[in-house]
Design goal:
Elements: H1 2-37, H2 40-45, E1 49-51, E2 54-55, E3 66-70, H3 100-106, H4 109-125, E4 130-132, H5 155-170, E5 175-181, E6 194-196, H6 199-206, H7 208-215, E7 221-224, E8 228-229, E9 232-233, H8 238-248, E10 254-257, H9 265-270, H10 290-297, H11 303-319, H12 334-347, E11 349-353, E12 367-371, H13 396-404, E13 409-413, H14 426-429, H15 437-447, E14 452-458, H16 479-489, E15 493-498, H17 506-511, E16 514-518, H18 525-534, H19 555-558, E17 568-570, H20 579-584, E18 602-609, E19 613-614, E20 619-628, E21 634-644, E22 655-664, E23 669-677, E24 683-685, E25 690-692, E26 696-705, E27 708-717
Parallel strand pairs: 3-4, 4-5, 5-7, 6-8, 6-17, 7-10, 12-13, 12-14, 14-15, 15-16, 19-27
Antiparallel strand pairs: 1-2, 2-3, 8-9, 11-16, 18-20, 20-23, 21-22, 21-26, 24-25, 26-27
Helix pairs in contact: 1-11, 3-12, 4-5, 4-12, 5-7, 12-18, 13-18, 15-16
The structure holds beta-D-glucopyranose (BGC).
The site of beta-D-glucopyranose has 7 residues, from loops.
Length: 718
Amino acid sequence: MKYIITSAFVFFLFVNVFAQKKNETDLQIKINRIVKRMTLEEKIEMLHGNALFSSAGVPRLRIPELTCDDGPLGVREEIKRFDWASANWTTDSATFLPNGSAIAATWNPVLANKYGVVIGEEANARKKNIMLAPAFNICRMPLCGRTYEYYSEDPYLNSQLAIQSVKGIQSQHVAACIKHFAANNQELNRDSVNTIVDERALREIYLPAFKAAVQQGDAYAVMSAYNKVNGYWCSENDFLLNKVLKKEWGFKGVVMSDWSGVHHTVAAANNGLDIEMGSSGPYDEWYFAKPLLAAVKSGQVSVKTIDDKVRRILWLICHTSMSANHPEGSIATPAHTKSAYDIASESIVLLKNDANILPLNAGKIKSIAVIGDNATRTFALGGYGAGVKAKHEVTALEGIKSRFGNTASISFARGYRANYSANNTDAQNSGYDQPDQNLIDQAVALAKTTDIAILCIGSNREYESEGHDRKNLELPFGEQALVNAVSAANPNTIIVIMAGAPYDLNEIKKANHTIVWSWFNGSEAGNALADVLKGVVNPSGRMPFTFPVSLKDSPASALNTYPGKEMTADYKEGILVGYRWYDTKNINPLYCFGYGLSYTNFTYTDLATDKKTYKPEDKITVSLKVKNTGSVAGKEVVQLYISKVNSSVLRPAKELKAFKKMMIAPAKTAAVSININAGDLAYFDSKLSKWVVEPGQYRILAASSSKDIRQTVTINVK
Ligand code: BGC
């Protein structure tokens, strides 16, 4: 029987693969036929923008124009065809989805997929073929202004989320344009900086999520970054675009420039760029317009190269706007709101709960002071492309009122003034870090009268933004003074921090007993937060990056390589990014990668592997038991790190290789089984230019965070 089922399954797979191959061959035949009918001028028209967010089709052959829109936090509102002003539509209010680091904090690829589906459905409703999302550059430097758009400091966590976000978007026949390729890790000087990064660091840290999104997520589009990598602009980087992306990884889709990120015609055309977007001046004078036509005519760029670009665009169109059964799409539906809620509620990280105040006992609490500008602030807009015109956004105050308003009186005090605009000069923003004593006094007066104070601080979408980095890790707007004053006035003060990147929480961690980390958490942020405070949701978010004790502990600062000298940022730390740096150098972080508490506890036992010795092509099956020892159900994120014993080359102290998030009922034990490919224990040997699995012993660490190793098992690799 088993044999019959297995044979039937193998036959099914064979038929499926065969059908896919045949479809792909038929598609290529169709595309070749179209290309043959096109004039050179028509082809060139397709290779550059014809408006801010589109490129031309071929009306004569009924090839539609290619339309795109920004993400990643939702589908950006319609802007005018030729300028950045709002088109003032009434039908483009969208779902505001939790920001990238919030998605990463869920450690839940299923939710990344849900995110993608929402983006894809809303893109269809807006007739957009390409979504400029997801964005997942590595969090190398905690000050980077776009950290909140991106996922994590870890390439494996990044990869798992990137694959599923892409799959979710593309399940709706909308292309995901993964960005920004590659090593675009700071905003300061982003359009001029030359990133010097060795091949090993590129392969092990900066490229894996792009590779995974291409090979496992089948991403249809890639956006080249603004910066240079090793001397060449990313939009004309033969190594990145031709050698690695297109040849090695077999990428079949389109490479699109970042807006205004093209510098030369011939170099970009020959080195792998397919579409030029966002340049300035008349459209027919862009690098990939008349100058490209001239370059083809003079023989500097071959017709074969042009045809390859056109084929890629047609291939993308066939999978999106011209695909069979193309979905209609829908926008800001209740189902989308539910997805936004699900992601938000799993992203919130409980940092400290020493007084066991949380979850709040709604029956006993009669009055709550909600304090802080962030309690009433919305976070959908800001950050240029990452801004969303949200159909609705529940603030923290609204969420707390809806969850506690029936049983407690709830009052609000603003507490601080968020005097900072991303578009201001430093001089115009000066004083933004100063407390407002009047507002503090009002907050203290209120906090003295209530059972509980919930202090909502952090940053906002002006303070963290594309186009600039933060100057330091300090909490802005004089918030520390407010925290000190309110905490002294009310012993039951809960600190809620809303932000998208690491901050200096040293004082708060020392002095406050209850700390909750929320994010720019989307349309349902306030409801998700209130449900976590109330215990309707047991927090299960885990930090996707390290919070250093001090900025100078972080690799780029310690090695003085940020923002770089003479427009050159030398990534001297190589592969030691994030916890790989802190753990290898024995530097204690403030909050480590993977950290987050729950309202329950979990114990780990019985860690084992299916064998003791493996070959590099083997699969390692790791098993363990995880018990929920508390009285409420909760989700645990089991993290598996590997550590090479006596490595002959530099290896990080540990590297995440797998994780699994699961819900466990109180007093129940989950039997967990996780596979790691022995091949994934490899390091990249730059001299040999290949991945090498060094024979010998490896420790597998089963951990609840990168610093909380619960069990260890050692294996051998031959
Ligand atoms: C950003 C991209 C964005 C593009 C279009 C650029 O400044 O770097 O992420 O997609 O603008 O708005």
